[in-house]
Amino acid sequence: MLLLFFVILIENRYMEAYDTIVSLIPLLTISQKQRLIEELKKEKIVIHKNELTHCPHCDSVNLIKHSFFNERQRFKCKDCERTFTKTTGTALHGINKQNDFLRYFTSMMEDGFRPLKKMCKEFKISKQTAFDWRQKSMITLEHSKANFEGITEIDDLWFRYNLKGRQGLVNGRKRAGKVGAGDNGFQTKILATADRTGQLDMSVIRIGRMKMSDIPRKIGNRINSKTILTSDKHGSISAFAKSFKIPHISFDAKNHTFDKEYHVQHINSIAERFDFMVNRVLKGVSTKYLQGYANWFKELEVLKNDKSKNELSMDDLLKSNHTWDVFINIENQYEKFINTYSSRTYRCPVKRVRKSQNWTKDVLNRYATY
To answer: Per the database record, which ranges form the ISXO2-like transposase domain (predicted)?
Structure first.
């Protein structure tokens, strides 16, 4: 049986090999199936990554090899004189079970949104580890920043201000904020923008009513005069289009469309599925982490018909050498977001502190979550 597998793989007929393996599994005994599972777990995921070309701390290209660390090649920057490896600052930074982490990430991309308890059981890790690995993965999921072309739908999505998981609140039962009708200061807003070519952006902008300044802050450099914005009659969107001289077609929200061709049905569909994921599957998401889940959803949405989506997402995961810095400073970014883009009060700071590798104001401005 193993010889048959070997011959098929040598012939490079992967799909035929998969079908053959699946058909032979029922013929195995229980002990043989268990052995097969153990062998598959031992199989390593091969990481394809370009050679290190610059220092992750100062971006210098003046590098030299500098011995080994845990059987991994170390490098030294001749300018800042700091040492590092290929994984320094990336999502793999500080992770001992790197192969398990890559399998975890692959499961996120292939199986979608699954509860942490199931991930803990499958990968035999603690709940805190499963949560940390999920956050590290979501930080890196920024697939495309191309310009929006042609008819582009735009709208704001509403999610209740949520303090889920934050310890020390006087009334823990109200972590999800007050229940109030209409657009109020307890609604977290996501600006959703999508064109007909597949470009999609989902950005957390503020807590409270959306302002005109929020739109250029997030997507201003991706829209030009050739873009045709279509939306309901939201004053902020109309003001943005007028200010930047962008063609804009609007309609009453209750009508959902204007002249059949101009509508926001795509955005409405995305909003419905994202809301189901956040509030039903995941039982609510803390506002602190909402942008990360939006990145995850957007990645799956944009690449859902791409057969190479795992490779593309894995490349994004490994090429960013600021993931670690962004990850350990999520709380700092959240505090800044609350103080700058909401009328809420920042409360009960998380006391979990880690050492940052290269956290500067420049990194904060370039890679901040909000």
So the answer is: 147-299
